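Hi, here's the filled form for the chain we discussed.

Project: internal
Contact: R.S.
Residues: 216
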Amino acid sequence: MVTQRSPKLDKKQVVETALRLLNETGLDGLTLRAIAKELNVQAPALYWHFKNKQALLDEMATEMYRRMTEGAHLAPGASWQERLLHGNRALRTALLGYRDGAKVFSGSRFTGTEHAVQLEASLRSLVEAGLDLPQAVRATSTAYFFTLGFVTEEQGVEPLPGERREGYDVDERAARMADFPLAAAAGAAIFQNYEEGFEEGLCLVIAGIEARYGIK
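And the returned structure, exactly as it came back:
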């Protein structure tokens, strides 16, 4: 009797398949069973690498970050403002490349230390500008949380660039809220022109850091 063996899997193969399926199914539809089916193995085979779905999400987020930083360069003498702008713009672009990318990133734990390179540089630039370490942490975290929250809401309306969910027609919303003219008109700014909104919001965060801590 010949025993049929499953193809040999490595962690990278599982993660690459999971990231590809994410764009097809979204986070809710991404299950270990679905990934195993795509790889033509039984689900238990994946548990050699990931004890549960969260462990897989952790590695997916880490791989997303690795891909984000590949070939990314910033001058060593860049200011803290330039570092926050560059890092958070890159993060938004990376998250938008995956359906539910922000949800995957949110709450996940990096499995490597690649992120420490950028974090160290950002914290150092803020400390050199006059902040103590806790203040520098709050500054970088606030910008990061803004980006993560912004993209989460953006992908709630546009799961992928060029794809828009039903129920977010700005004109229909304005008609329903006609008794509240400012709130009605705000829809055009809230649910459209995300690139412009993100840039303006990120500049507000940076201006807030400058004003709060008195640094330039």
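Let me know if anything looks off before we file it.
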